[in-house]
């Protein structure tokens, strides 16, 4: 089975490309794998490593910065759970089925829906500014869906009051490396 490694760091606000390349170096140390020298490229869409088959997705919220690495397209989102106007946000940005399900549960799963939606939009390369939040439904009247348009959603247990979700093109083993404790 394919695997994805997620590395979690303190969000220190430093240079994002430098932090990403440092995380890739940490991954090599942790796994014993070696990767060729890479350069982070952006062409208006999803960032990528030039000349490499390594895919990545970065997310940050509150005091956490995380990156997922794998050999398939993926999207990662992490959100700190905090009080928000859940109902008005869900009504504006979520599909009706998601809104109805969340309302029935008192919006307790708001961050599970949000992280699933954002991880899916990162997976596709659209991002949340594309307006796709309402179109990509990650829940129906029965609850959270395991996949959207063939992309798999995995909700990740995360300590410290955070919600997280990884979206990949196929099921995978997830290895979490909490670098804050090193």
Q: Can you offer a commentary on this structure?
A:
This protein has 182 residues and is of the alpha+beta class. The chain has one domain (3-181): 4'-phosphopantetheinyl transferase domain (Ribosomal Protein L22, Chain A, Alpha-Beta Complex), CATH 3.90.470.20. The protein has four helices and twelve strands; from the N terminus they run βαβββββαααββββββ. It has helices at 16-31, 86-93, 96-104, 110-124, and strands at 3-10, 40-41, 48-49, 55-61, 64-70, 74-80, 139-140, 143-144, 147-148, 151-156, 162-168, 173-178. Strands 4-5-1-12 form a four-stranded mixed beta sheet, covered by helices on one side. A four-stranded antiparallel beta sheet has the order 6-11-10-9, with helices on one face. Strand 9 (147-148) and strand 10 form a beta hairpin. It is globular, with a radius of gyration of 16 Å. The mean pLDDT is 89.
Features:
182 residues; alpha+beta; Ribosomal Protein L22, Chain A; 4-stranded mixed sheet; 4-stranded antiparallel sheet; 26% helix
Could you name the CATH class?
Alpha Beta
Low-confidence stretches: none
Mean pLDDT: 89
Q: Write down the CATH topology.
A: Ribosomal Protein L22, Chain A
Estimated structural class: alpha+beta
Biggest sheet statistics: 4 strands, mixed
Strand order of the largest sheet: 4-5-1-12
Q: How do the helices and strands follow one another from N- to C-terminus?
A: EHEEEEEHHHEEEEEE
- The proportion of residues in beta strands is 25-35%
SS field, number of helical segments: 4
Architecture (CATH level 2) name: Alpha-Beta Complex
Instruction: Give the CA-CA distance, first to last residue.
Output: 28 Å
């Amino acid at each position: 089975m394919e695997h994805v490694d997620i590395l979690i760091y303190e969000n220190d606000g430093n240079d994002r490309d430098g932090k990403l390349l440092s995380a890739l170096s940490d991954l090599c140390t942790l796994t014993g794998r070696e990767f060729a020298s890479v350069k982070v490229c952006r062409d208006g869409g999803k960032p990528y490593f030039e000349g490499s088959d390594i895919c990545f997705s970065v997310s940050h919220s509150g005091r956490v910065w995380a990156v997922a690495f794998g050999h398939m397209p993926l999207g990662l989102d992490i959100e700190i759970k905090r009080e928000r106007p859940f109902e008005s946000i869900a009504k504006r940005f979520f599909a009706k089925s998601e809104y109805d399900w969340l309302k029935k549960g008192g919006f307790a799963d708001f961050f599970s829906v949000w992280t699933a939606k954002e991880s899916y939009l990162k997976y596709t390369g659209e991002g949340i500014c594309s307006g796709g939040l309402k179109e990509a439904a990650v829940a129906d009247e029965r609850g959270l869906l395991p996949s959207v348009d063939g992309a798999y959603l995995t909700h990740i247990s995360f300590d410290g009051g955070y919600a997280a979700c990884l979206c990949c093109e196929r099921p995978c083993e997830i290895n979490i490396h909490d670098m804050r404790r090193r």
